[in-house]
Amino acid sequence: MKIERLSQDKIRIFLTFEDLSERGIQKEDMWKEIPKVHELFSEMMDQAYSELGFDATGTLAVEVFSLPAQGMVVIVTRSKGYHAEDDLDDDDDLYEVEVTLDQSEWVIFAFKDFEDVIGAAKKVVNHLPESNGGSLYAYKNHYFLQFDPKAFEEGPLKTIIAMLSEFGDSSAVTPAVLSEYGKTVMTEHAIQTLCEHF
Q1: Do 120 and 36 fall within a single domain?
Q2: Do 96 and 8 share a structural domain?
């Protein structure tokens, strides 16, 4: 479980499928009101407080995104205008949660340096359909390869994800963030272009 602060009132939590299975939770369970999911949420909020000082009292908006073959991203936003002192008279430290669920169709991997991107490209080039060579972005001192998994069959996609994992890490960054804040290096056929030139 990785937690990062996005702003004063917003955090992002990345859960791998291993994190879920260790707690006996299936991906589909995140959409259900069951005690295991409540326990996981409480654990996430405790960890967010201990690591980042993020106080999860008050009204929270929770967005859950499923990433194919990578895990889940949970974005927690505390309502604006909340102040810890508002709760001093309240013995009740329960929080109110509004949950939004979504599923990302994109496979995105982050690489620390360009050599890792080239290594990954050479490893997967023969397993990609011609129509899906991926896009390459630079963002926050990392390189990001982004693929649309709709062009893959289930088996080859798992193989490609396993190969990419040798060189980089699956990322919780969304395509919208990459296109808006990242620098576009190659918009399409990134894998084939990398292999032709390097």
Answers
A1: no
A2: yes
Summarised one tens digit per residue, pLDDT across range 27-57 is: 777 777 778 888 888 899 999 999 999 988 7
Mean pLDDT, rounded, of the chain: 82
What residue type is 12 in one-letter code?
R
Instruction: Kindly indicate the confidence band of residue 193, based on its pLDDT and cuts at 50, 70 and 90.
Output: very high
Instruction: Tell me what pLDDT residue 88 has.
Output: 42
Angstrom distance (rounded) from CA 96 to CA 197: 53
Same domain for 93 and 124? no
Complete DSSP assignment for 9-38? TEEEEEEEHHHHHHTT--GGGGGS--HHHH
Cα angle at 99 between 93 and 102, to 5 degrees? Answer: 150
Phi and psi of 37, rounded to 5°? -70, -40
